[in-house]
Design brief:
401 residues, mainly beta, Neuraminidase, 4-stranded antiparallel beta sheet, repeat, Galactose oxidase, Kelch-typ_b-propeller, Kelch_1, signal
């Protein structure tokens, strides 16, 4: 029986789309997006895009009929297996070997250790049971290997702690309960040993049952950001708790909680963790918290100190193009409509994409100060007939004066 795969993170990317509006080629005179060379890949949505050294790999994705924005569509067909490497400096593509198993795109479905790209694709089969494939691509050898996947206790995301791949659970919440209820027992986060092709449970973190969990890898371990899983969510502000895992000692250290509402947007930028998400919330009329709490902040994991983001201009939520997913490097984080140079504490608006249609389902990567978009689907004004794309664009983030 053929398996029908549904990649949760990839579906989320398809739903979110690439931008809220389409407009001209440049904004306020800043250099805009430039088209990349023609790719050897066929049109598709939500491929996996991952940076390895100075090149960007585009792998898999879906070539099924595109789903209109905000529509409820049937599950896409089995993801694709082919891919290609893009060199931003040369504006050139090179086909790569096909993966042995389908590759679905989405945030945190891949982890890079040196030249090795580890890919975890999970989905539901025709009988309703979930299964996963775990495989690795050696970029230096242009070769794939099939590996042992983690257990199937739930959806897992990937990160890299030191030189170890870690598969972690995004939430401890039971999906079968009418009210927020923790799984019992709590599923362990797992670390992978490439030498033996085995998984080992990490020590239990000190935060307890939580949701909106994000594990951000660091050279010496990882930092966990999460919110308490309680029976009456929203009565108290769901601020982010934090803990640091030291890979050498195998021990957790609880860090101070931050006055910030979501751990989802945090990325490593140099020695700090940054979420550049826009906006804030006050709990509304029913459970008003008496203050606005932001969605973005900065955490120094070495000291446990939290700090606010620098001010940025106000904008209408529907004003301008938004990158689909957050990406970062050693200096910059690109999030939504903004890029933040962290050392300079300077914001840059992401320019409009020079297309006339609504575009969704693109994938994004960041390499050498260049933001890369590829694929997706384009929709006209009536959103009735989508066309899969094999187009790519790059934008060089300006260096602050």
């Amino acid at each position: 029986m053929k398996t029908r795969w549904v990649v949760a993170a990839g579906l989320a990317l398809l739903t979110a789309g690439c931008g809220e509006t389409a407009a001209g080629p440049e904004a306020d005179g800043e250099p805009g997006w430039r088209p990349v060379a023609q790719s050897p890949l066929t049109p598709r949505e939500a491929p996996l895009t991952v940076t390895v050294g100075e090149q960007i790999l585009v792998i898999g994705g879906s070539d099924g009929p595109p789903c209109p924005p905000n529509a409820d569509c049937v599950a896409p067909p089995e993801p694709l297996r082919d891919g290609a490497a893009y060199d931003p400096a040369a504006d050139a593509w090179t086909p790569i070997a096909d993966a042995p198993a389908p590759v679905g795109g989405g945030p945190e479905t891949a982890a890079v250790v040196g030249d090795m790209v580890y890919v975890l694709t999970s989905g539901f089969g025709a009988d309703g049971t979930m299964s996963s494939t775990f495989q690795a691509y050696d970029a230096a050898a242009d070769a794939w290997i099939e590996l042992t996947p983690p257990d199937d206790t739930g959806w897992r995301a990937l990160t890299v702690a030191g030189d170890r791949v870690v598969a972690y659970v995004g939430s401890h919440e039971s999906m079968d309960a009418a009210v927020p209820t923790a799984l019992d027992p709590l599923p362990a986060d797992l670390t992978y040993d490439a030498a033996t092709d085995t998984w080992t449970a990490l020590p239990a973190d000190p935060l307890g049952p939580s949701y909106d969990r994000r594990l951000v890898g660091t050279p010496g371990g990882a930092v966990l950001l999460a919110s308490d899983l309680v029976a009456n969510p929203g009565v108290e502000p769901p601020v982010v708790d934090a803990a640091r895992f030291d890979l050498e000692s195998g021990a957790w250290t609880e860090l101070p909680s931050g006055d910030v509402l979501s751990g989802y947007g945090f990325r490593a930028v140099g020695d700090v963790l940054v979420s550049a998400l826009e906006g804030s919330a006050d709990g509304g009329e029913v459970n008003n918290w008496g203050r606005d709490i932001p969605y973005g902040a900065v955490l120094d994991p070495a000291t446990g100190a939290w700090s606010a983001l620098p001010d940025r201009p106000e904008r209408d939520p529907l004003d301008g193009f938004m990158v689909p997913g957050d990406v970062s490097d050693e200096q910059t984080i690109v999030s939504g409509a903004w890029a933040l140079d962290v050392p300079a504490q300077a914001w840059t608006r992401v320019p409009e994409l020079p297309v006339d249609e609504h575009v969704q389902g693109q994938s994004v990567a960041f390499a050498g100060g260049v933001v890369f978009l590829w694929g997706g689907s384009a929709w006209g004004d009536d959103m009735s007939d989508g066309e899969l794309l094999a187009d790519g664009w790059v934008w060089t983030v300006p260096t602050p004066d």
